[in-house]
Protein: HTH luxR-type domain-containing protein
Amino acid sequence: MKSVEHIFQEFIDAIHTAENEGDFERIAIRVAQRLGFRWFAYLRITDNEPILISSYPKSWTNRYFASRYQQLDPVVRRAALEHDLFTWSGEAAKPLGTRAQRDFFDEATTFGIRSGLTVPIRGGFGRVAAFTLASDDLSRMPDSLIGESKEIFQLLGLYFHSHLTAKLQLRVPVMTPTVTLTQRERQCLMWASRGKTAADIAVLAEITPRTASFHLDNARRKLGAVSIAQCVAEALRQGLLI
Structure:
């Protein structure tokens, strides 16, 4: 199996070519499978009807919306409260939930949906979206699949959301940026979001590696991030790179 970093780079290259919903779906299916998951799901909760792009069985998604499960789904509820990636499993969550939520996880299990990881994507006015990779294999829990690559998985979800909404011009509330980045900081961060190192950015931007690192570090400090990956994730959240 290729490294998570290599798979992520291929995902970035592919998503820049996506032109329609079908393209985004195919790219997400491919990256989910290559990372060891069976399905992906992108769910956006709106004032009207929720928007879903996923590879889940159609019989499950039809049942999900017919029963309005988005209102009690513990994963969706948690995504509305948290900012960082989290993992979940039906077996672990059932003892903590209500009877309706336990029944929900039992029903999801009949479709093979047993565990996963979810990247919350927060918008203004309490809006929320979530990018999920799910598995039917209890012998390979999400934590073991993530390993040391949590920030890359976080970026994957944010990158999918940002490019999908920009390309399809979905009406989503965008966070008001809390900081201002210089043009060069934005340029370096954009290349970093595509998996480029400071040395790569130096060649692409025709600057020295030291200067590239300087601009990346400035952006990281402005956004209160502890790493460049976290910095890119926060910039994507605030709409600074789209």
About this structure: The two ends are 31 Å apart (CA to CA). The mean pLDDT is 86.
